[in-house]
Amino acid sequence: MRNTAKITTAVLAAGALTLGLTACGSDKDAATDTSGPLVVAASPVPHAEILNFVKDNLAEKAGLDLEVKEFTDYVTPNTATEDGSVGANYFQTQPYLDDFNKKNGTHIVSVVDVHLEPLGLYSHKVKKADELKSGATIAIPNDTVNEGRALQLLAAGGLITLKDGVGTSATPADITENPKKLTFKELEAAQTPRSLDDVDAAVVNGNYAIEADLKPAQDALVLEEAKDNPNSNLLAVKEGQENDPRVKKLAKLLTSPEVKKFIEDKYAGSVLASF
């Protein structure tokens, strides 16, 4: 993420935040008007699908008016939550949220963990990770947390070795051993599955893998372990909105037995309930 693509993403994030804050001027907005529907920003898959299951099957009985707004990037849902355009979002992990708040001066907090999407290494050119040739190019997400997470995945798969203790802040500069002389192409996370015909392999976030008709449990050459994984996807709101009764209702529904069964039945191990 120390390349032009990453810098561009940061600039766009700052621009989106500025526009969002400018737009916030009404007495009532999606975050503070608790008499209206709860508008939730979400990635299309699986987040919006899970929310729409709640909307269609559980919300009415619980007295929750729920509106789902889909976004395909990892910036706008947070800037929209910050400026009050939406009342909550559901698309990100805690490490990503912490990093976003730090870099953008936003005030978004977690409400409840809902599910894990295991990060995976995929390829259209090889069937096993050890078949990657010397000098192979690997596409990885260019945002700080997902880049570090991708490198940790490659290290867990035995493809590289990282400095001790770097965690999700790892960058290619932290690689201490690279026996296959792998090179890395840093891309916006949504672009990684689309790069599979142009690179030897790509590390893809679970939601984008599913959207690209990849089956993480079956197709990944290396797949993130679910046990003790800190990267659960969560429901988040702007600080101060945690006690909104609509948010509390949604948090309860998202961690209900009905949602857990929906996740298990629909995603067959490619998405795992975190509750």
Features:
alpha/beta, D-methionine transport system substrate-binding protein, 275 residues, 21% strand, 10 helices
Count of alpha/pi helices = 10
Oligomer: single chain
Give the helices and strands as they follow along the chain: HEHHEHEHEEEHEEEEHHEEHHE
Strand content: 15-25%
Going by helix content, strand content and strand pairing, the class is alpha/beta
- Which geometry do the CA atoms define? globular
Protein name: D-methionine transport system substrate-binding protein
Organism: Streptomyces albogriseolus
Task: Walk me through this protein's architecture.
The chain has 275 residues and is α/β, with parallel strands linked by helices. 37% of the residues lie in helices and 21% in strands. It contains 10 helices and 13 strands. Strands 2-1-3-12-4-13 form a 6-stranded mixed sheet, sandwiched between helices. The chain has a 5-stranded mixed sheet with strand order 9-6-10-5-11. It has a two-stranded antiparallel ribbon with strand order 7-8. Helix 1 runs parallel beside helix 4 (76-83). It is globular. The protein starts with a helix and ends with a strand. The model is unreliable at 1-28 (pLDDT under 50). This is D-methionine transport system substrate-binding protein. It comes from Streptomyces albogriseolus.
